[in-house]
Amino acid sequence: TLAGLVLEAERLGEGPLETQLDAHSSGIAVAAQTRIEELGEITTQRLPRFFEALGHRHPYIIVDGLRDFNDHAVATMDLAHLLVLVVTQDAPAVRAAARSLRIFRRLGYPPERIRLVINRYSAKAPISLDNVKAALARPVDFTVGNDFPLIEQAVNHGHMTSKLDADAPVSRDLRNLGRMIAGLPAEPDTRGFFARLFGRS
Prior knowledge:
By secondary structure, the chain is mainly alpha-helical. It has nine helices and five strands; from the N terminus they run αββααβαβαβαααα. 43% of the residues lie in helices and 10% in strands. β4 (114-121), α5 (129-136) and β5 form a beta-alpha-beta unit. α1 crosses α2. The radius of gyration is 19 Å and the shape is globular. 11% of the residues are buried.
């Protein structure tokens, strides 16, 4: 569990973790959620050493699911190289994003460390990208298209969308989102002229 890894990192003092994380067939390693009785072991003081130990073996560490601004979340974001704020095209989500951006500013996070991503993007949604940009006073950095059937299939079967349908627009979006986070250029768009003309940009 996460708590066990945090304690191991502290015990080692330096160097990589000895425990091998569970790995998906794609090569992504995952740290399991912590049991309730272990939550007290994860202190904000132990987090820097934990991430350092992970970084010895993993060039990219993604912390998903930070929903609030508790001490652990803020300590994690303080250590992060990049903060990805994921928003959907509805009024409550945009209001929540505006609140998050205000807190980011109060915490001293510079704009260049923040990326704004629209998930389940639709060009026909009542709240457009321009609406989001105006409400949040910053541009949208990336969009991930809405393909519920493919995402549901990927989640239920434990597969990457690219394994199920590598040519699907959402698969390309997710690959390029990963490349953006990693600081790599987007993969070239190999679709034909009409697919690019009428497809989502």
